[in-house]
Amino acid sequence: MQTSAVLLLLLVSVLSVLIFSQSTSLNRRKAAGFGVLVCVITAFLYSVLYKPMPTEITVGEMPKSHSEAMQQIQTKLTQDPNQQGLWFQLGNGYLRENDFQSALTSFDYSIRLSESASANQLSAKASALYYLSSQRMTSEVEGLLQRALTLDSTNTTALTLIANDHLLGFRHQQAIDTWVQLLDSQQTDLNRVAIIESINHAKSYLPKN
C-alpha cells in the first residue's frame, strides 16, 4: 500500500475515534455509521484529488511508476521551467505523496506562468492549502474555491472539497446539497455510486420529522 493511502487511512481512523468518543446524543451504532460515512467521503475525495489531471503538455512515454513520473516531470522542468502544465502535474504528484507544501509551491508556479488561472488550478491550490491548514476552511481557501466555481460552477475538485468540509463539520444537509449539485452537473467522470452512497448515509443523520 502506498504511503499516501496509509496516511489517509490513519486520518480516517483518528477522526472516527474522535467522533465515537465525543458523541453524546448519538448511540454507538450511529457513531460507527458516521465513521463509515467518513471513510466513503475520504476515499472519494482521494480519488478526485489524486487522479491524473489532463493538461496540454505531453510529458512523453508513460513512466512505469509514480516516482518515475515525478522524476520525468522534474527533469523536463529543469530543462524548461516555464511550462505551467508540468508544474501543475508536479503539484498533483506531490498531493499524491501528501507533500502539501511542495504541492502548493508547484501550483503557485503553474498559476504564475498562466495568462489566467483555471478552475482546476485554483481548486488544486485550495486543496493543498486546506490540508496544510489541518482541514480547515480558511478565508484564503474559501476565496480560491469561490474563484474556481465562478470559472466553472461544477468543478469537481472544488465541490468535493466543499462537501467533505461540510461533512466533517456535521453540516449534513449542506453536504447533501453539494453532492446533489455534482450529480446534476452531468459530468461523465464522476463516481456516482460513491456520491449516492454518501448522500444516503448523510441523510440518516438528518432530524426526523
How far apart are the first and last residues' alpha carbons, in Å?
A: 44 Å
Q: Low-confidence segments, ≥5 residues, pLDDT <50?
A: 1-21, 52-60
Question: What structural category do the secondary elements indicate?
Answer: mainly alpha
Helix content: over 70%
Key traits:
71% helix, 10 helices, 209 residues, disordered N terminus, mainly alpha
Brief description of this entry?
By secondary structure, the chain is mainly α.
Secondary-structure map:
Elements: H1 3-22, H2 28-50, H3 66-79, H4 84-96, H5 100-112, H6 119-132, H7 139-151, H8 156-168, H9 172-184, H10 192-203
Protein name: Nitrite reductase
GO biological process, one term: cytochrome complex assembly
InterPro entries: C-type_cytochrome_biogenesis, TPR-like_helical_dom_sf, TPR_CcmH_CycH, TPR_rpt
Overall description:
With 209 residues, the chain is an all-alpha fold. The chain has helices at 3-22, 28-50, 66-79, 84-96, 100-112, 119-132, 139-151, 156-168, 172-184, 192-203. Helix 2 (28-50) runs antiparallel to helix 10. The chain is elongated, with a radius of gyration of 18 Å. The model is unreliable at 1-21 and 52-60 (pLDDT under 50). InterPro entries: C-type_cytochrome_biogenesis, TPR-like_helical_dom_sf, TPR_CcmH_CycH, TPR_rpt. TPR repeats lie at residues 84-117.
